[in-house]
UniProtKB/TrEMBL annotation:
Domain of life: Bacteria
Chain ranges of the Pyridoxamine kinase/Phosphomethylpyrimidine kinase domain: 8-256
Pathway the protein contributes to: Cofactor biosynthesis; thiamine diphosphate biosynthesis; 4-amino-2-methyl-5-diphosphomethylpyrimidine from 5-amino-1-(5-phospho-D-ribosyl)imidazole: step 3/3
Source organism of this protein record: Microlunatus elymi
E.C. code: 2.7.1.49, 2.7.4.7
Sorted UniProt keywords: ATP-binding, Kinase, Nucleotide-binding, Thiamine biosynthesis, Transferase
UniProt protein name: Bifunctional hydroxymethylpyrimidine kinase/phosphomethylpyrimidine kinase
Role of this protein: Catalyzes the phosphorylation of hydroxymethylpyrimidine phosphate (HMP-P) to HMP-PP, and of HMP to HMP-P.
Organism phylogeny: Bacteria, Bacillati, Actinomycetota, Actinomycetes, Propionibacteriales
Amino acid sequence: MLSIAGSDPSGGAGIQADLKTATALGVYGAAAITSLTVQNTRGVTGIHPVPAGFVADQIVAVLTDLEVAAIKIGMLATAEIAAAVAEVLRARPGPAIVLDPVVIATSGDRLVTPEVTAVIKDELLTLATVITPNLPETGTLLDHEPPTTVAEMSLAAQELRTQGSAAALVKGGHLGRSETITDVLADADGVINFSGPYVPTANTHGTGCTLSSAIASELASGRRLRPAVEAAKNYLTGALRAGADRRIGSGSGPVDHLWREQSR
Ligand SMILES: Nc1ncnc2c1ncn2[C@@H]1O[C@H](COP(=O)(O)OP(=O)(O)O)[C@@H](O)[C@H]1O
Ligand SMILES: Cc1ncc(COP(=O)(O)O)c(N)n1
């Protein structure tokens, strides 16, 4: 599994979360870094994008050497980086692509320039096996208000497919506190809801990164999309539960990626 994403020095999101996730799921993880961030569990205070050509060189170095089965795309800090990633991946079809159209961190800080969304819509959506927006990102991609109910999420997921993505998983983490939390997948076979228990915790830093890299890891292991999403959501729920009461940092802490190892 190759992750194309940003670095989070506090270790809970971005590349660091993706490599922990792949490792926990028994998959070899590689990483092409798109951007350095200055961030911790409290927020993001700096962004230092990697030059677009250098991002492309990292991806080519991995794809021309390792047998990559699935790619996860996360934070693309600038339109130039997003376009360079699209160009490289267009030229080398094959791996499944999980596109997490990251715009804003859990802390509320913006991670990418406004121009990135247009490149995601015009160039990356059609390359993706599945796109995994949260509710605000869904609104941005569709150019209307974000969904506020599971029924609206279902409509939005189908609308994202008509924009060119083979499948769309609209994540419901921003719907607020309830008994269960539902993500909605629209694919060629229709629409299916993935519900899990809501875990009451402030430690949700990196949940989106963890889910998308878990889906990519499960696809790399040979699962089809629906079983991959189900397994990824179960893994994330376990990681949220195990990390719920940990005190790592003073803000929104990370999930416990290694929960399965510890319960052995
Ligand atoms: N408190 C929670 N309990 C259980 N699952 C959660 C919780 N918060 C988020 N999730 C799950 O984490 C994943 C990411 O959700 P979301 O917060 O919507 O995206 P993002 O992290 O990209 O903003 C989804 O699968 C969502 O259902
Ligand atoms: C480098 C980087 N990439 C992505 C996120 C989003 O994190 P989340 O999974 O909480 O939406 C982040 N905080 N930092």
